[in-house]
Specification:
81% of the residues lie in helices and 0% in strands. It is built from four helices and no strands. The radius of gyration is 22 Å and the shape is extended.
Amino acid sequence: MASPASEPVVAQPPRLRRVVRSFGYAFEGLSVMLRTQPNFLVHVAAAIVIIALGIAVGLTAAEFAVVVVTIAMVMIVECLNTALESVCDLVSPGIHPLVKRAKDVSAAAVLIAAAASVVIAVLIFAPHLLPLTAH
């Protein structure tokens, strides 16, 4: 018979309180982004306009899925950029060339995501909007 020490450990499911608390931290992070990051507000405003336009032109479910994933991608990259900048400021409050590089590369990631979202918007919305301009 195996001793209790040799029996496999079964992972315990997270307690509800811990799960709820983790959602609270996530909502606090979202609140920080909305209160402190003007670019994030621009992304939120653009997302609202794009979703409303998508409803107005009757995007298909697949088209809406691409739009939602694209919006999420831009917002996620903006959050990661802010998180990286915060860590950089903590680690190196002064000016350091490697911190500048990290911040610049992080900002470039946001720029790439935003540019890709514009291309995706044109590809998805153009077929719906071009017929409207023919009249």
